[in-house]
Amino acid sequence: MVFANRIAAAKQLVAALSEYRDKHPLVLAIPRGAVPMGKIIADELNGELDVVLVRKLRAPGNPEFAIGSVDESGWVYLADYASQVGADKEYIRNEVSTQLETIRQRRSEYTPIRRPIDPAARIVIVIDDGLATGSTMLAALHALRAKQPAELVCAVPVAPPDTLEKVSGNADRVICLSTPRNFSAVAQFYMDFPQVTDEEVITILATSGQAH
């Protein structure tokens, strides 16, 4: 399955998530790419939109390749192959510090006049535009599970089967529209996959009614 763009993927996810309509779900998008999708899903389900801030940990010399992730609390998920690609303890410590600083900056930019919406006792739907290694989603789910939501749902348009299996143990429910085995990158499953800017994220959150 190939999606025209993130908007088309979000509309298909709305249909898959229709049972949560009018149950006031908290839709948490992983910035930046999933934020426009989260806006559509939150609006269609009559829920609330916010972001969950997690960052991938980049492999030495290969910033596009994830060796793990870190969430806003500082919890670190590390893939078992991290050491095999040259990530020693000092490198990981420095990379975690760098990504936590980015998280702090984004929080101050994205929601400057309010605290994150509390997921406790809420139906929480975590959105991303696709999963590759799943490390970022794992960090997001871990961070949210600690805050005791009533139900924790992972919803994505596309992911390889092995990644879905890895993620499924960390959510109450996983919804994925397409699970191709021939998977190299999320972008290959979109006809149009532009970068989403920080400015777009800030505008969406401000106009969603959640920044007031």
TrEMBL record:
Name the InterPro entries for this protein. Answer: PRTase-like (IPR029057), PRTase_dom (IPR000836)
Please provide the record's keywords in A-Z order. Answer: Transferase
Judging by the UniProt lineage, the source's domain of life is: Bacteria
Database matches in CDD domains: PRTases_typeI (cd06223)
Under the heading Gene3D superfamilies, the entry gives: 3.40.50.2020, PRTase-like
The residue ranges of the Phosphoribosyltransferase domain are 8-193
Q: Which GO terms describe its molecular function?
A: transferase activity
**Protein's UniProt name:** Phosphoribosyl transferase
